Amino acid sequence: LSHSGGTGALAQWVLVELQGEVEPRQSRDLSESLLGDLHYTCEGVPVLIVGHHILYGKVVQLEKPFAVLVKQGGAPQPSPTEPHGHYTVTALIKTKLLFKTRPKPIITHVPKKV
Amino acid sequence: AAMRSRAEVDATLQTAKVNPAELLPVVQCLSFGPQAGGGECCLLQLEPGLCAELEAGRSLVIRGEKDEHAVLCSKDKTYDMKIADTSNMLLFVPGCKTPEELNADPTSCNIIHSQIAGFSKNYWELRRCRPKLKKLRKLLMEDPYEGPDSRKDQTSTFSKYTTEDLFSLIQASEEEILHQLQVIDACKIEGYWRILDFDYEMKLLNHVTQLIDSESWPLSKVPLSVCLEELGSLEPREMIEHILLSYGRKYIDDAGEVFFEMREDKICRAIAQMLLRNAVKFNLSEFEEVWQQSVPEGMKTRLDQLQGLALVDKSSRPETIFLLKVEDLPEDNQERFNSLFGIRQKWTEVDITPYIQDLCAEKQTVGALLTKYARSSMLNGVKVYNSRRPIS
């Protein structure tokens, strides 16, 4: 049964919200694989290039920030219904990048060889 | 996998027909970190005030046994936890920079590699709730304290609870628990929280009221020191002081002496409970007579002292009164109403209020509860409430 803590200031992370599922291009698992490039326009609009899609989004200051909880001690996966167990608050999230517009597909030619 | 280079990023921009001149110079290449798929991180949406508490270094605790719904407790509040599903993918990225941060920190690098620490399709939502304190009384009633002479304590195998035990077992914040311990007149004996057995409590109260009577003290000025002196041979000093604290208001006079102003309503109420315990119900007028005779000299009994303790049945001839303690009723709103409508089909607002008052959430009124859980009708020109559903 439990909770949070940590000495020193809590880290501030950012949430990136995407529509739908995120799947790796190759069939290997998600770890270590690239999601995409995150740019901002000069006006501060986030632009995310994921695979063959280009996503435009917006920066949102969260009315209700999130705390990121990390389960402690190699216990079995937290069930989605009951959060029993030991948790530590690792970070706070006050900002999110929301990509809600439908992705624009990138029509590719053969990519330039670098 | 090799990290992306700026050149690769630029090539992608070109393919995507995005004009680099319209972009800030820094790109953040996001990839999934090694632990990302592990599902060990989850998101908790914070209600107002909780974020500030965390930043101030204070803790939040998740409490609940396997058979209970988990709640989250801050130092002084309790929240229900519920999973909220979104249809979207939420990625958490440490060190991801916003446009403001990039503009504020002109670095020479034009590429940052950031790792996604985890992702989720859902998060925990919080909703402020009443602390679940019924269990506190239940635990302490497992083994009420019957006094030092009771053999029970020596041979008892019942669990006894320290403050820390209670903090871990009760789904409420520490402040809410400590406050409730005071409300129910619990006391600490040998490091464990105990509730007094009612008969023992009445015995202690009786010692005090008899002493007040024999000393002819005014009810508003009962001296602690004399009580301890006179009664110290009969009962432990801590118990004498405890009963004075429970049934009186402590104050210190100009000379620094400790006195108690006895609480008339609470004493009358306790004596009523003592009388009512002995039968299923009583003839109301007989009860009122005996009750007035049983309370200390100078105290006046009134039926409104018995709110949430006893109920008068005005429909029976003669009118009767019976014990009904709100703390014996279910804690859950719907179950409480079911139970009340099982006892009596139709209630006036005046009668039912003491039995539902404690269910009110932070800004909720009794009226709002009645609208939600009951149906109203008129009976002989009086508004009454009954169940919304048939009671079996």
UniProtKB/TrEMBL annotation, chain A:
Biological process, per Gene Ontology: DNA replication; mitotic sister chromatid cohesion
GO MF term list: DNA binding
This protein's UniProt keywords: Cell cycle, DNA replication, DNA-binding, Nucleus
Chief localization: nucleus
Superkingdom as given in the UniProt entry: Eukaryota
Location within or outside the cell: Nucleus
GO CC, one annotated term: Ctf18 RFC-like complex
Family of this protein: Belongs to the CTF8 family.
Name the UniProt record assigns to this protein: CTF8 protein
Species in which this protein is naturally found: Brachypodius melanocephalos
TrEMBL record, chain B:
Keyword tags: DNA replication
GO cellular component: chromatin; chromosome, centromeric region; Ctf18 RFC-like complex
Superkingdom in the source lineage: Eukaryota
BP GO annotations: DNA replication; maintenance of mitotic sister chromatid cohesion
The keyword DNA repair belongs to this UniProt entry's keyword annotation: no
Keyword Phosphoprotein applies: no
Signal peptide: none
Alphabetical list of InterPro entries matching this protein: Dcc1
Pfam families, alphabetized: Dcc1
Family, similarity comment: Belongs to the DCC1 family.
Protein name as catalogued: Sister chromatid cohesion protein DCC1
Source species: Brachypodius melanocephalos (black-headed bulbul)
